[in-house]
Amino acid sequence: MSSENRRAKLIIRILVLICLLPAVFLPDASEAQQPKKVAKIGYLVAGSASSISIYVEAFRKALRELGYVEGKNIVIEFRYAEGQEKRLPDLAEELVRAKVDLIFVGNNRAAQVAKNTTTTIPIVVVLTSDPVATGLVNSLAQPGGNVTGLTRLSNSPELAGKRLEVLKEAFPAVRLVAVLRNPEAVSATLIFKELQAAAQALAVQLEPVEVRQLGDFDKAFTAITKKRADALMVLGSSIYNIREAEIVKFAASNRLPVMYPRPEAVDAGGLMYYGTNETDLYRRAATYVDKIRKGANPADLPVEQPTKFELVINLKTAKQTGLTIQPNVLARADKVIR
């Protein structure tokens, strides 16, 4: 065999080996295309499924837009306390035992319980008050732990005073305002102090009416009626969300102007709401889940604060109950239900 032939055969063998290298050293294509680990999200709820349904749908929709498909690359484990907040610690422990990758909460008390339960699992929140004041994070810019997310401030001391101001402006004749409050709720004392300061400036008297558990509502309604309150303010609490329909019905039957702590109450027949667009905040919360799933550290993700507030008025309810809202207040409403 000539040297040229031997050289040609050697070159052919080298080329064959080069072609076989990827099959030997590279992973199998089917292995490379295996799906990533399914994300398991724990959703800790102080209230009931019905009380947060609109928020859950907004959250789920945003996750879908980010490429998450339930049952395929994400699973959401729900735990509901049904208004019995003493159940929250056990429910949080259940989520930890279920080895969730992240815990999502939309309530101050649930957030505190989640943080007390785990310091390693990331926690994304949509809170009703200041997370710095309640000790959940070190600062809004640098949370510093395993908690981050958004604050909607719908149950904050500052916003409570503004709500009373709007209520008084809408109904100038109001003098006595009943305040439905849960004294065990986070920031309850600070909120009521802010309300008292606002009430003094507005020449309004406050009548606190406490509801600590679901069985207290009939007693509270009787107290409000006996005091002959001119109007009612409802401060945020998970048990109030569960009994929201009853509060709306009571207010309508007594022709009572009411300022509610969330816009869903107005959609359901309540009179007024002033605060943030809450469903939008739940949509934005999904981006935090996505960032953490992609490797972001919650300690470094700033907590967002709302920058826009909206006034929602149910004019249909006002007309049905014979309540006349001042035209200047009605004119600046962001949403009017007719």
List keywords for this structure.
12 strands, alpha/beta, Rossmann fold, 2 domains, 43% helix, 7-stranded mixed beta sheet
What does this protein look like?
With 338 residues, the protein is of the alpha/beta class. The chain has two domains: 39-153 and 278-300, Rossmann fold, CATH 3.40.50.2300; 157-275 and 310-337, Response regulator (Rossmann fold). It is 43% helix and 17% strand. It contains 14 helices and twelve strands. The strands form two sheets. Strands 7-6-8-9-10-11-12 form a seven-stranded mixed sheet, with helices on both faces. Helix 6 (157-170) runs parallel beside helix 7 (188-202). The radius of gyration is 27 Å and the shape is elongated.
Task: Summarize this entry quickly.
The protein has 338 residues and is of the alpha/beta class.
Broad structural category: alpha/beta
Span from first to last CA? 99 Å
> Briefly, what CATH class of the largest domain?
Alpha Beta
- The name of the CATH topology of the largest domain is Rossmann fold
Q: What CATH architecture of the largest domain would you give?
A: 3-Layer(aba) Sandwich
Total beta strand runs = 12
